[in-house]
Amino acid sequence: MGFSCSCSGGSEKALSTLEIGEGGIVSKIVGDGSLKRRILEMGLVPGTQIRVERKAPFNDPVSVWFRGYELSLRVDEANAVLVRPSGCASCPEGSR
Amino acid sequence: MSWTIALAGNPNTGKTSLFNALTGSNQHVGNWPGVTVERKEGRFRSSGEEVTVVDLPGIYSLGAASLDEEIAADYLLRNRPDLAVVVADASNLERSLYLAVQMLEIGTPLVLALNMMDMAVEKGILIDAARLGALLGVPVVPTVARRKEGIEELKERIVLSLREKRSSSSFSLPYGERLNPLFDALESFLTGRPELIPGLSARSAAVKFIEGDAALLAAAESKGLRKEMDALFAERGRKVEEELGYDLQTAVIERRWGFVSGVTAEAVKRDLSLKARLTLSDRIDRVVTSRALGLPLFFLVTWAVFRLTYALGDPLVEILEGVFESLGKWSGELLAGAGFSEIVSSFVQDGLVGGLGSVVVFFPHIFILFAFIALLEDSGYMARGAFVMDRVMHLMGLHGKSFIPMLMGFGCNVPSMMATRILEQPRDRMITLLVLPFMSCSARLPVFVLFAGVFFGAYAGTVVFSLYVLGILVAVLAAKALGSTLFKGESSQLVMELPPYHVPSLSMVLRHAWERGFLFLRKAGTFILLSVIAVWALASFPWGVEYGSSESVVGRLGHVLAPLFAPAGFGFWQAAVALFFGFLAKEVVVGTLGALLGSGEAGLAAALPALFTPLSAYAFLVMTLLYVPCVAAVAAFRRETGSWGWTLFMIAYTTLVGYGGAVLVYQGGKLLGLG
After folding, report:
1. Does the distance separating the beta carbons of B285 and A56 come in below 8 Å?
2. How far is A32 from chain B (nearest CA, A)?
3. Is residue B290 exposed (0-12), middle (13-18) or buried (19+ Cβ within 10 Å)?
4. pLDDT at B169
5. Best exposed site among A43, B46, B74, B378 by fewest CB in 10 Å?
6. CB count, 10 Å around CB of B559?
7. Which chain B positions have a beta carbon within 8 Å of A54's beta carbon?
8. Region B162-180: what's the mean pLDDT?
């Protein structure tokens, strides 16, 4: 058909690559040290449902909505958060 | 009986309001030992009990990922307060509870204050406080601290819990059948051995070990148990990690969040009819953080803060200056009239009263700037500003919030150095503090204007502008250089909450501004006063010579130092002395030159060309721009870093950069045939 949806579900990808409005479920936090620990303790643990809420003027940082609040992360921080996308509002139903 | 309790909670939960409501004006502000994080302590009496409240820094967890968290965790573990009140944001309960659960796990007896209940109701969130209390095993008191609701009930509940002496050591989080055997093994290993951290149960220590808690790992190391524990972990833990598919640190934190989610789901009901509604906060953010308007709006806001701070503050400063000048004259004349020697009256007039004056004049700007900063932080806008600005500032190795102190630096370095408190991480704060002196403050402008007018005629404006740009460039380069050398190993993180907007409370804003201004007078005042007196003495002795003249100590020092400045083009003693006096306040350079050249300020235009060429004049301005900021800025720097070592470093490196810059300009200019 030639139509492709940029936020199709399925494979794991970095949170930073999600578009605004796109959501997903956190599958893993990579890396180690204090950044990983901080991300986990802010509530971005495997299984958490998230949605990319907004991006700053140069697409960095990004802001993510989960557990009833909004958290902003630099792109290189959001790279440590792996997400299984669950589609987004701009994707027509059934395109996933 | 007197008790000590701790107040803990996430940022933006109304913790400060609650602290103020609990303790009223009965407060003391200081620093945590060894660090420059603010420590507030207050007191209240209830039912005949005297309770001291220690306000912990606002934190999200006890994971010690930041200095604030380290302080809070350390205080709870080592000082063991009799009880801790956790302030939870009722409209965002889940996130608030994570910290509460962590505190229960280390055995801190708790009372939970469900604050901002009004906001929760507005959002359609209904909380069953009794159910929540039963699930966690702690007393829960709903409050609205901003309106002082529920405060008496909270005090009574605190006293009741203190008298019951309840402990939460019975609390144990269900980590599940995969993790529990591992904890059991570690617990039985630790039981019977010396406690790793006094008062911390073997079970909690086991959990913290698996979690990779830095403080606990260090304790295990120092008690000589680390090796055996690591071996135990390698033997049993690795297998569990393989089964889980991810590491145990993630597993522990994930399960803790799982528990918190479970508790929240049971205790909270949402009115679904309200959930779908786009909140006001969201609508504001559509504009404020948008790609098109985000940055322009941020520049507009910070520019307005800049203009208003100085527009409102300058007249007040002028009044204060006038008052202290008259006071100095009056006291000098009074003492002279009463038969005191000239040395006494001069000391009082120029040293003591003059010195006091140079401390007090900073109060208006600090007060006004911090009122604005409190307004920005309390309303939620500060986080948005940092969000839109972070990318640009991060290029220089700084944080989005660094922009505000940097911009304020164009007015006066003193309040802007104090404004670095908005930065939470020591690295961001230190680098910002170290590059701030290069931002050209308004006191440098009179020097620029004078020299530019005399030597560059029609190009005066361009010359002054070039100095401002040079200051910014040097600051950017210095930030890059410091970030990749002295602060190389220290990570810089954003990971920042964007809290919902809300209307700031005027009383809190004013209180914050007053505290900042007052603390500056108290903490930096002595240093500034003593420095002014020292300069007075150097300029006045040996007694009998003209103040600051060639024969005074300062003058002689100038003669000694003058050859040093020859490579920069201004190797004469008057320039050295003028720069020395510039340490009091940079605009003093103008007055000093006027006095030393015997021409007065008015005659300087005619007198200067005898000493300077346009090239050496520009080199002198580069020096004035970059060398050590005034004594008040040094005092503010010392106060914000809490370190004489860093203060001396700052004095030395800015002066070297200034000197190097001046020499480079002069020698470079000569090579290009400009001299």
Report:
1. no
2. 10
3. middle
4. 57
5. B74
6. 13
7. 285, 289
8. 81
Amino acid in the structure at residue B154: L
pLDDT at site B547: 76
Written out in words, the top-level CATH class of the domain with range A13-88 is: mainly beta
Distance from CA of B661 to the nearest CA of A (A): 34
| Region for B67 from its dihedrals, namely left if φ exceeds 0, alpha if ψ lies in -120 to 50, beta otherwise | alpha
Q: In terms of DSSP bridges, do strands A62-66 and A49-55 run parallel, antiparallel, or are they unpaired?
A: antiparallel
Question: What span, in angstroms and rounded, lies between the C-alpha atoms of B73 and B77?
Answer: 6
Which pLDDT tens digit goes with each residue over B94-124?
999 999 999 999 989 999 999 998 888 888 8
H and E: helices and strands count for chain A: 2, 6
Q: pTM for the complete prediction? A: 0.86
Contact call for B253 and A41, based on CB within 8 A: yes
Whole-angstrom Cα distance, residue B77 to residue B208? 12
Nearest-CA neighbor of A36 among A27, A24, A45?
Answer: A45
Is A41 in contact with B61 (Cβ distance < 8 A)? yes
If interface means Cβ-Cβ distance under 8 Å, which residues of chain B face chain A? 60-61, 63, 65-66, 92-95, 98, 212, 246, 249-250, 253-254, 257-258, 261, 285, 289, 291, 294-295, 383, 387-388, 390-392, 394, 491, 493-499
Domain B2-164 sits in CATH 3.40.50.40 = no
Calpha distance A10→B16 (Å, rounded): 45
CA distances from B248 to A96, B180, B204, B251, B520 (A): 33, 12, 15, 5, 47
| Residue B675 per-residue DSSP state | -
B502 three-state secondary structure: coil
**A63 vs B contacts (CB less than 8 Å):** 289, 387, 498
CA B163 and chain centroid, separation:
38
Instruction: Provide the Cα torsion B148, B154, B159, B161; round to 10°.
Output: -170
**Closest chain A residue to the Cα of B249, Cα to Cα:** A37
Q: What are the boundaries of each domain within chain B?
A: 2-164, 173-244
Q: Which residue of A has its CA nearest to B69?
A: A38
Surface of A (68-87) touching B: CB under 8 A:
68-74, 77
Inter-residue contact B536 to B583 (CB < 8 Å): no
Q: A72–B495: do the CB atoms touch at under 8 Å?
A: yes
Contacts of A53-59 with C-beta under 8 Å, sequence gap 24+, read A53/A20, A54/A20, A54/B285, A54/B289, A55/A20, A55/B291, A56/B289, A56/B294, A56/B387, A56/B388, A56/B390, A56/B391, A57/B291, A57/B294, A57/B295, A57/B388, A57/B391, A58/B391, A58/B392
How close, in Å, is residue B641 to chain A by CA atoms? 23
The answer to whether B584 touches B631, Cβ cutoff 8 Å, is: yes
Nearest to B171 by CA among B220, B100, B253, B115: B100
Q: Is B132 helix (H, G, I), strand (E, B) or coil?
A: helix
ipTM summary value = 0.85
Answer yes or no: do B494 and A72 touch at CB < 8 A: yes
Report the percentage of chain B scoring pLDDT > 70. 96
CB contact under 8 A, B63 and A38: yes
- Could you tell me how many CB contacts below 8 A there are between chain A and chain B? 110
